[in-house]
């Protein structure tokens, strides 16, 4: 007997105890109808509870994502994270940069950032004696981390300043900014990581192999005197190791108010890495703020990245299929635009001042 039937029986028993037949006759047209409706509602509720939707199936660790390859590309037919952020901030700015190819003027901060990035790479490669410290950097906070990078480089577990390209289906391809003629004809996306570290943990005590990068940047398994290409191993052999990647990006600018942008950047790097190294299951992303002596860390697994991939793909697709670039002039978008006319406190312009839609143009310069 279900709950509704028990409730009905209890009510009838109570009615009988209070004078039963007379009360039943009085409520036959009103209360009995109400009781029947109430019981029907409970019965429907019980039935609905019994038919709860099944649990969603768990996504496999490596789920292939179907990404369309038939996009009709526009004049800006490839993207990088920085270009995508420029496009989303103001489409007209990316037109000036990538279509009209108007050169930008590097500011002091950009020049300093490039010098420090290059110096960090050279130090990790044992090509210079000291890290590129100045009166703003706090390298002492990162001494242990940089020493670890050196050790990983010595053990062939670290890649630096690699140029990663992808096609529209996110399959890895060649991208060489210094020799564009060597680029893959289907190059669609680009990424350049400061440091990419691989950590392989054996899952069995009797395994003593090491997973390293070869000269071709592919993974290899060193085991005794044997050097085996990772992709040539069978699935059972590869599953004897848990592969984790650490993606590191050096920052010389401020952290405050840039957290969301940098997290977005970290996601784009992890998505690139996921497709380039399909056996890596966990991705640690770290931003080292060298001037503040702080870190920001993120963690992704492959399942999370599969879910987030479609969102990122659609954003990049919007940029690379755009044909009508709309300006977005406002105080925020134009503040540091490399093509605008805004100046800092010292009167030095952030941009070259060629944008006709610039929010900061003087009234005498505006074409009205």
UniProtKB/TrEMBL annotation:
Residues 79-339 form the PD-(D/E)XK endonuclease-like domain. Residues 1-20 are annotated as: Disordered. Gene3D superfamilies: 3.90.320.10. This is PD-(D/E)XK nuclease family protein. It comes from Shewanella gaetbuli.
């Amino acid at each position: 007997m279900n709950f509704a039937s028990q409730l009905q029986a209890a009510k009838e028993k109570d009615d009988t105890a209070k004078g039963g037949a007379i009360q039943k006759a009085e409520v036959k047209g009103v209360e009995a109808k109400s009781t029947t409706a109430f019981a029907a509602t409970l019965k429907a509720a019980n039935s609905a509870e019994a038919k709860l939707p099944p649990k969603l199936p768990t996504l496999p660790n490596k789920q292939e994502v179907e990404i369309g390859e038939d996009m009709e590309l526009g004049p800006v037919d490839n993207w990088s994270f920085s270009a995508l952020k420029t496009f989303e901030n103001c489409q007209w700015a990316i037109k000036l940069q990538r279509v009209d190819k108007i050169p930008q003027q590097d500011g002091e901060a950009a020049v300093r950032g490039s010098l420090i990035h290059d110096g960090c790479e050279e130090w990790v490669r044992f090509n210079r004696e000291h890290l590129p410290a100045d009166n703003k950097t706090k390298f002492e906070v990162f001494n242990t981390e940089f020493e670890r990078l050196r050790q990983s480089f010595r053990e062939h577990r670290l890649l630096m300043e690699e140029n990663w390209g992808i096609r529209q289906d996110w399959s890895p391809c060649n991208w060489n900014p210094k020799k564009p003629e060597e680029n893959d004809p289907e190059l669609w996306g680009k990424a350049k990581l400061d440091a990419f570290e691989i950590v392989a943990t054996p899952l069995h005590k009797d395994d003593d192999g090491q997973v390293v990068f070869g000269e071709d940047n592919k993974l290899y398994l060193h085991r005794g005197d044997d050097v085996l290409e990772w992709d040539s191993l069978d699935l059972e052999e590869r599953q004897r190791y848990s592969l984790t990647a650490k993606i590191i990006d050096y920052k010389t600018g401020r952290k405050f108010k840039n957290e969301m942008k940098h997290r977005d950047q970290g996601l784009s790097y992890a998505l690139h890495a996921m497709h380039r190294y399909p056996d890596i299951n966990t991705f640690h992303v770290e931003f080292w703020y060298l001037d503040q002596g702080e870190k920001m860390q993120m963690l992704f697994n492959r399942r999370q990245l599969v879910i987030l991939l479609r969102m990122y793909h659609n954003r990049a697709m919007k940029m690379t299929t755009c044909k009508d670039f709309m300006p977005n002039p406002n105080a925020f978008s134009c503040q540091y635009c490399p093509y605008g006319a805004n100046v800092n406190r010292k009167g030095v312009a952030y941009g070259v001042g060629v944008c006709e839609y610039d929010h900061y143009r003087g009234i005498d310069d505006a074409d009205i």
